[in-house]
């Protein structure tokens, strides 16, 4: 068992390295949770897709303590961290690219929302279509998909896409200057070197949980897959440069 305080320390370090890529990460979290709260239920059922160590799930539950949050990820190490740090959350080990993943969630009613931050771009476009189609089967009519991520528009509006990248980079320069937090790879190298995580790191390798590249970084890829899955209204709810909160309403 991982120590609770040690897990919290590693997640705090995770959050700092994520902020190096997302200087307005907390603002995006806030906008996403605002949207869940605006559904009007004090006790929404929410699925966190690609939850990592539970950073979003924990913030959502802090704002809406009556919510039921199901946190889903395929990475044994990140789920191990989350379980040690946040015993109040329900973590489910599932690969969103594999058909039938929703059967592992143990849902007793349709979900009110599915949320995700900086995760779904790892999924290839064909797998993304399957994942959104399966997600639609467990969301209630009017339920939301809220996906915060860097989603580009260069295929449709190349000039705007270039400007979006510039706006994002200027924000990072103002926030950090030359003192950016450690990079994503450095965090992974550090935790893999900690003997306390040897077993989970080995399980991670066996599960093939490491990511390579960005498979679906275009806004059009996500919007198209959501339309095919039966989502009706699809649009950007919050944006800073190419960092956006994509919202889709289950038809």
Describe this entry's structure for a reader.
44% of the residues lie in helices and 21% in strands. It has 251 residues and is an alpha/beta fold. It has one domain (4-250): 3-Layer(aba) Sandwich (Rossmann fold), CATH 3.40.50. The protein has a 7-stranded mixed sheet, with helices on both faces. Strand 4 (111-117), helix 5 (125-136) and strand 5 (139-150) form a beta-alpha-beta unit. The relative contact order is 0.17. Residues 46-143 form the Methyltransferase domain. This is Class I SAM-dependent methyltransferase. It comes from Nonomuraea antimicrobica. Keywords: Methyltransferase, Transferase.
- Domain module count: 1
What's the CATH class label? Alpha Beta
Going across the biggest sheet, name each strand in turn: 3-2-1-4-5-7-6
**How would you name the CATH homologous superfamily?**
Vaccinia Virus protein VP39
The shape is globular
Please, how many helices?
9
Rg result: 18 Å
Beta-strand proportion: 15-25%
Q: What series of H and E elements makes up the topology? A: HHEHEHEEHEHHHHEE
- Nearest-integer average pLDDT: 96
Total number of strands: 7
Summarize the amount of helix as a percent range. Answer: 40-55%
Distance between the termini: 43 Å
Class from secondary-structure proportions? alpha/beta
Label the CATH architecture: 3-Layer(aba) Sandwich
